[in-house]
From TrEMBL:
This is DUF4349 domain-containing protein. Residues 52-69 have a biased composition (Polar residues). PROSITE patterns: PROKAR_LIPOPROTEIN. Residues 72-280 form the DUF4349 domain. Keywords: Membrane, Transmembrane, Transmembrane helix. It holds the Pfam family DUF4349. The chain crosses the membrane at residues 259-280. The keyword tRNA processing does not apply. InterPro entries: DUF4349.
Length: 295
């Protein structure tokens, strides 16, 4: 009887243990089979993000985030022309003033008239905008007589801000299309996105070039300078025999040329004279022939 009781208790313990193991196994299986909520939410976000990106790709960016520089952008340029007694000294003064104020000589032309012995210089200079007035004052104070002076000032602040905003908006648009390209699965969609990216990149490069040009014009002012010597006297090589003989030959040659061209210009009269002479000779021959017949 005692043995039977022990066996019954052992059987009940084994049965209870099996049931607990079965319940734990079922719980583990249910946990493994049920999808984690985080992964489910991430999957839903991945499915929704392409649609959201495609709907927002063509939306313009916020202008307030791209406009940060509101300082005035001023372009100064002009031209000046004056007379000087010593053009070389005037040029040296201009070059020295440019070096002192941080400018440079962009273009230079020199002309010399051999007949009047008159020289003229044309310079195109670039100087930092902050030193433009100082350079102009130094130049005008060292000149004897100013023929003309024209200074033009342009405010390009609005244009500067618009170009920067255009670059910023297109760069943001480019990033959105790059994200779409990374998620594209079809070749046709990928090619369409690449074409759009190429167009956006061309627009960005063009606007960046315009912005660089405006920045250069704002940073450095330009001035066209032209100066000349006083009216010189004709060059005189002397009053000797050689000089007079040379002038006589030149004058005689000019007279011969003038006579030749005068005769050429009278060609209609020459033709009329030749025709008249031909008619007179023919008339005389006929008259002689008639006189011979009568005799």
């Amino acid at each position: 009887m005692k043995t039977y009781f022990i066996l019954s208790v052992s059987f009940l313990l084994v049965l209870t243990s099996c049931e607990r193991k079965q319940e734990e196994k079922l719980k583990i299986q249910s946990i493994m089979l049920s999808p984690p909520p985080v992964a489910e939410e991430k999957k839903a976000n991945d499915l929704a993000s392409p649609l959201e990106d495609s709907n927002t790709a063509n939306k313009p960016a916020d202008h307030s985030s791209s406009i940060t520089d509101t300082a005035k952008k001023i372009i100064k340029e002009g031209d000046i022309r004056f007379e000087t007694g010593n053009p070389k000294a005037a040029r040296q003064n201009i070059v020295a003033s440019l070096k002192k104020l941080g400018g440079y000589l962009a273009e230079e032309n020199e002309t010399n008239s051999g007949e009047t012995n008159q020289k003229e210089y044309s310079l195109k200079i670039r100087v930092p905008s902050k030193n433009f007035d100082a350079f102009l004052n130094n130049l005008t104070s060292s000149t004897d007589h100013i023929d003309s002076k024209n200074i033009h000032i342009r405010d390009v602040t609005t244009q500067f801000i618009d170009v920067k905003a255009q670059i910023s908006n297109n760069k943001q648009l480019e990033q959105r299309y790059l994200q779409l390209a990374a998620k594209a699965t079809k070749m046709t969609d990928l090619l369409a996105i690449e074409d759009k990216l190429a167009s956006i990149r061309t627009t960005i490069d063009s606007a960046q070039g315009q912005l660089n040009y405006l920045s250069s014009q704002v940073s450095y002012s330009s001035l066209d300078i032209s100066f000349y010597t006083k009216q010189g006297s004709p060059v005189n090589e002397g009053d000797g025999f050689g000089y007079k003989f040379k002038n006589s030959l030149s004058a005689g040659w000019e007279i011969m040329q003038n006579m030749f061209f005068s005769i050429v210009s009278m060609w209609p009269l020459v033709i009329v004279a030749l025709i008249t002479y031909w008619f007179v000779i023919r008339w005389k021959k006929r008259r002689r022939a008639n006189t011979t017949i009568e005799v």
